[in-house]
UniProtKB/TrEMBL annotation:
Gene3D superfamilies: ATP synthase delta/epsilon subunit, C-terminal domain (1.20.5.440), F0F1 ATP synthase delta/epsilon subunit, N-terminal (2.60.15.10). F-type ATPases have 2 components, CF(1) - the catalytic core - and CF(0) - the membrane proton channel. CF(1) has five subunits: alpha(3), beta(3), gamma(1), delta(1), epsilon(1). CF(0) has three main subunits: a, b and c. The gene is atpC. It is a peripheral membrane protein. It comes from Salisediminibacterium halotolerans. Residues 90-134 form a coiled coil. This is ATP synthase epsilon chain. Residues 87-132 form the ATP synthase epsilon subunit C-terminal domain. Residues 7-82 form the ATP synthase F1 complex delta/epsilon subunit N-terminal domain. GO terms for molecular function: ATP binding; proton-transporting ATP synthase activity, rotational mechanism. Signal peptide: none annotated. InterPro entries: ATP_F1_dsu/esu_C_sf (IPR036794), ATP_synth_F1_dsu/esu (IPR001469), ATP_synth_F1_dsu/esu_N (IPR020546), ATP_synth_F1_esu_C (IPR020547), ATPsynth_dsu/esu_N (IPR036771).
Amino acid sequence: MNTIEANVVTPDGSVFNGQVEMVSVKTPEGGLGILPGHLPLVSLLTIGPVRLKSAGNIQPVAVSGGFVEVRKDEVNVLAESAELPSDIDITRARAAKERAERRLAEAKKENLDFARAELALKRALNRLEVAENK
């Protein structure tokens, strides 16, 4: 089966590097599936899981925005933050979700920074989705 090199990198270093059959990402325009031979492109990423398919297995990575760059022979995910399921503390992620839900409710009542609270909730939900659906 054809493969393409995939790299997931954050300012703190590499999170994933390897040959994969497919990379799935979330962009502002919707989901994007990248197979070997895909046309080159650069796109923004939204908060959501990046899915790396290899040998029939899917490795999810919780990504909190960034860019995806598709080149002839590689896919580079340049993320603000990225975590493998094994690196996510589920208890801490659940606590972050609960805090974000409280902030979101307060933001609605007190006309505070709703967008910031909403982003915090999206990040927490993304981390939980990846951690719990290993």
